[in-house]
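To assess whether the prediction recovers the assembly geometry, we first specified each molecular entity separately, as shown.
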Amino acid sequence: MLCDDCKKKPASISFKEVLPDKTIELNLCDECASKRGLLVNRKLSPVEILQKLLRQRSEQDEKVICPRCYLSLAEFKRIGRFGCSDCVMTFATHIQHLIKQIHQSDRHIGRKAAPGTKKGLEVYRLREELKKALESELYEDAAKIRDKLREYGIKDV
Amino acid sequence: MFDNIRWLIPTSKKTLPCGEESEIVVSSRIRVARNLNSIPFEVKMKASDAEYLIGLVKSIINERLAGEFLSLKDLKPLEKESLLECHLVSPGFIRKDKPASVFINEGGNVSVMVNEEDHLRYQGISCGLNLVNLSGAVFEVEEMIGDNVDYAFNDAYGYLTSCPTNIGTGMRASVFMHLPGLVFTNEVEKVLKGALQIGMAVRGIYGEGSEIRGSLFQISNQHTIGFREEDLLERTTKLAKMIIDIEKKARDVILTKARNEFEDKIFRSLAILRSARTISSGEVLNLLSAVRFGIGVGIVKEITLATLNEILVVSRPANIQLFFGELLEEQERDIKRAEYIRQKLGVN
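The predicted structure of the complete assembly is given in tokenized form:
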């Protein structure tokens, strides 16, 4: 699509303003948009930097595969998403520069995840077991599971 | 017909002036992305994994927090749109084809999307400039769930996210500002270019010259790794305050140079809101912008920002239908919207 103003360069920005009596829709190139005083953010955004870097592909990419979720580096470059928490370390040497270019840093200095107590996971698992035991009319098992849940401070079982 | 109007009321109430500078800052928002170690991320996730995660999060939350847990598949299209209009979910969330849910706390200011692009997306919204308090509310829920699950975390890269653009803190803090003064004095570009230089993203749409329609801008942090969460909040707040100062000076310029012209715009806008018999949501947005400016500079005294914020939320296309409890065609909607606004502004 060509720019609505100069009709020469391809439009890169679409702009819409709703007025009481009409709606203005414009497709403009960077230059004309800036002439009209419309804000143009031409510094690449993190998403744009990511897209640009992901286009740098190599034949080796097919061979680097996450051992846990089987996402290949090639696929990662195609979709721009990790498949599991192990992908990051599997691809570490290939993606470090990418993170650095996007964020101008590759070192986390923020909050640290406290090791979860896993209590929630355990309570959830027990509740599911309790449900199954009751469905199968295994009342003795159900009573044992209920006692365990009570040890976790769960009263409404 | 729709009993899910429940979230609409706390949402419009929570937009009461609660942060600083609420005549310029429309809202502050925080989003924090988290994933679990034990489950594949979104692109590798099966429907059964998604169901498992929802069950797990629901059981943790229900035992500890008051609020509502809504399943995406149970929501009517209008209800999904309304949640979006209230900024409680993202556009990506309502388009999901895998099982997904959202929890909304009792106050309507914190929500947790389950199975959006990341396993968990914590979100907080508040009116006015309020990032630090808001982060407290968001991280309280994040920690409560974190005590019970294993967040995907790595010492070098921090919290691991689906997309590399969110890695580290997983946090995005944003401030929505109404800047008609900067638009009028042609300073927007200069100010916002400065923001980009210090690693902040800016988005905005505005009209030319003396137009005070819309004039809404959003600033947010672009980088999520290499900073502590407090630093990101401070940088965003600092930049917002700097822009607010320039906006205030620009408003003084307007009042000296073009008072009559602006007073006329403000009172005409108010008159339309008070008298219209049919009105579109786009027009309401523009007129509210003029009136908000009028309240900010003390020209309009009889209307509060709280009323204005409530109209802003409730008059959106899906919300107005939920408010009246019926499905409405566009024309009927415009009539009902006008009726609601007249009533809110004390005219019948």
